[in-house]
From TrEMBL:
<dbReference type="InterPro" id="IPR013538">
    <property type="entry name" value="ASHA1/2-like_C"/>
</dbReference>
<protein>
    <recommendedName>
        <fullName>Activator of Hsp90 ATPase homologue 1/2-like C-terminal domain-containing protein</fullName>
    </recommendedName>
</protein>
<comment type="similarity">
    <text>Belongs to the AHA1 family.</text>
</comment>
<feature type="domain" description="Activator of Hsp90 ATPase homologue 1/2-like C-terminal">
    <location>
        <begin position="23"/>
        <end position="139"/>
    </location>
</feature>
<dbReference type="InterPro" id="IPR023393">
    <property type="entry name" value="START-like_dom_sf"/>
</dbReference>
<dbReference type="Pfam" id="PF08327">
    <property type="entry name" value="AHSA1"/>
</dbReference>
């Protein structure tokens, strides 16, 4: 079951989702940080991920646009956060910030997914998109060893 809320983080609007997962933090950590696994549920294919704070992530939208991100927190298996930048040639005041926290909870873990948005006017569409992505993450976790 997914719960999503609109919150304010560092003075910026954000969407936050929480899900209880029946899997260990270690298994979920692999699904959210390994490029192959991440590409199965994230909206963009991951072509590169340097697993460290300050590392770079490269995303391919499959339509010729490459997006880059900078990892801001990498604390296995608890916290993964990054700032997603616009492609070259496009500028915006802030980067989107994504944060994935994993907490032990019962026999599994609780995932807290936060998206601090550059443009809050798109929150409804973003909410639906992340709900579908997190559903895909759960399916991936339930169908892999």
């Amino acid at each position: 079951m997914s719960a999503g809320n609109t919150i304010t983080l560092d003075g910026r609007p954000a969407l936050q989702f929480e899900r209880h997962l029946k899997h260990s933090r270690e298994k979920v950590w692999l699904a959210v940080t390994d490029p192959e696994h991440l590409s199965h549920w994230y909206p963009l294919r991951v072509t590169e991920l340097e697993p460290r704070a300050g590392g770079r992530i490269m995303f391919d939208d499959g339509e010729g646009t490459i997006y880059t991100a900078t990892i801001t927190r990498f604390d296995p298996p608890r916290l993964f956060a990054f700032d997603e930048h616009d492609p070259e040639g496009r500028e915006r005041e802030y980067d989107d910030h994504l944060r994935i926290e994993l907490h032990d909870e019962g026999a599994g873990c609780r995932l807290v997914f936060t998206h601090v948005m550059t443009d809050p006017s798109i929150a409804d569409g973003v909410f639906k998109g992340w709900t579908a992505c997190l559903d895909a993450l759960v399916t991936q976790l339930d169908t892999t060893e």
